[in-house]
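Entry for the shared binder. Reason: the reviewer on the internal report wants the predicted structure included alongside the sequence.
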Amino acid sequence: MGIATSGLHHVTAIAGNPQRNADFYLRTLGLRMVKTTVNFDDPGTYHLYYGDESGRPGTLMTFFPFHGAPPGKHGNGQATATAFSVPERSMGWWQRHLTAAGVEVGPVQSRDDEETLTFRDPDGLALSLVAHRQPDPRAPWDNGIVPPEHGIRGLHSVSLSVDDADATAGMLTGMGLSLTERQGDRFRFAAGDGGPGTYVDVLVRPGAERGLVAAGTVHHVAWRAPDESTQAAWRSELVESGVSVTSVLDRQYFRSVYFREPGGALLEIATDEPGFTADEPLLELGRALKLPPWLEPSREQIEAALPRLDLPSENNPERPVS
């Protein structure tokens, strides 16, 4: 394929209790709620978007929190870990902060140019913080909870677990990613020139049990396309190569197509445009429940079915407009 992605757009996972999910990602990890909406395909549940101040592509972690959802199972055929990028010399602070919040954290592990701290969110989703020696120029969301010098810069990488690397590697290289490193059964691919926000690690687990997508697991991984015309060309190339791809779906803040890589993980191509300020101002992001036009006639019923969700005041500080 001739189209090449510039990196990760977002990762979407399944959660249980929405308030517990919001408290963890807003107050414990210090991200911002950049959009409170619903699952457009199942409006009986929220779709919560967390990211930096404006929700730029590459900083986004999103959730479908199905209250009372059963726990999922990590295994082959899915993304089994999501990593966030933090600055160097931040691991000690994060160990203390997460421990004080009641999160069980593993030891800091060093690998080549990275330090990694692993833990799980309240639903069991496998997460890690990665401090890479290559500086990450992205600015953190400064909400007064996590000091900006330690704050999360955005996504670092995702890990896909597969039975065999060859077919998955073929699709990733066809998407413009290149193999940059191999350590045993772990293959790292990077988009563009590499760096935080561009990596996917392919973990080869021959014969391992297949995963089950439910609470505490990743639903899909989205890759960036700059605009709709690029996305359309990319979709055409996938179809011509025999991949089953959805039609283009309007997600209000980006356009999406979905397909599965040969190992089984669900992937998405999402446009960078139009972004999260399409229907509310920057300072008010995430504050109100936003619905697409085709769901607005059902707003009263949708709001009545959704559980109450309280956001901390830090999500929408009263900042002067520059």
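Summary line for the report: The helical segments are 18-28, 91-100, 165-174, 228-240, 299-305.
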